[in-house]
Amino acid sequence: MKSVASMMKGYYSAKNENPWHKVSKNIQTFINKESPKGKLSETMILLRAGVFGALDILSFGLIDEITTTDIIKAFTTKDSWKLGRRSARNLCLDVADKLIAKGSTRYLTPSALKRDGFGFLIPRIEEAQWEKFKKAKPKVTKGEMNLAKLEKSVIGSKFLREQMIMETKIDANDPRIETLLEAYKLQLVEIEVNRSSRIKPPAQTEQVTLNGQPVFDEDEEKEEKTKRKTAKGNQTPLTDFLPEEKKVTKTPKKKKSKKTRGRKK
Predict the structure, then answer these.
(1) How far apart are CA 74 and CA 87, in angstroms?
(2) Tens of pLDDT, residues 228-256
(3) Distance between CA 72 and CA 148 in Å, rounded?
(4) How many Å apart are CA 265 and CA 263, to the nearest integer?
(5) pTM higher than 0.70, yes or no?
(6) Cβ 45 vs Cβ 38: under 8 Å
(7) What does residue 16 show for φ and ψ, rounded to 5 degrees?
């Protein structure tokens, strides 16, 4: 990933040596001349992994709505690596917004998003998954229970696996239906309790663009990490932790006057 990132950064200083704006066309030409067509898909998969990894957007690698060409175009149309990286990540954010609005969150994995710096999307994704599960409540119609909607939701799919139900249609007379409905109700209650009792952490202050999108700035992130390391090395003197009245101060000794000395003699 580091080597790909290095080559991508080189695009801004030497485009002829790192022609990322022509990479898709060049790969297609090379494949047509030198290799079987079947190798094209394999090459593009490797290219996608390298590009997405270099830009820290691997969490979006399985989303069909974002093509490798779109990402390459997003960063090559900018004048610097920092602006290009930000453009590519904001493109992913726009697609994520649309997927969440539609409830299509199957490939938006919270742990992967958090790793790539998109953790602020997780509460909205969980809310969308919860709503989809709630709307997919199984019902008996026309002599059978259809579980297709439930299976298509992230929470519902996991729920059915836990209930050891592999099929998406069950006959109305199946004895498992009563148990399934009871388990579904309990799942709803459990999720609702977890949602209401969850303590939300304080929102971090983020820079946003005019359309409300977070601004991704790699240099600022590194600067912040450096500041934190420096801060750890500066220890506060122990006396600063003591209350003012408890600090011990030494009273200077009074010098004996000449008269006092003479009397003793």
Answers:
(1) 6
(2) 444 444 443 433 433 444 444 555 555 55
(3) 37
(4) 5
(5) no
(6) no
(7) -70, -35
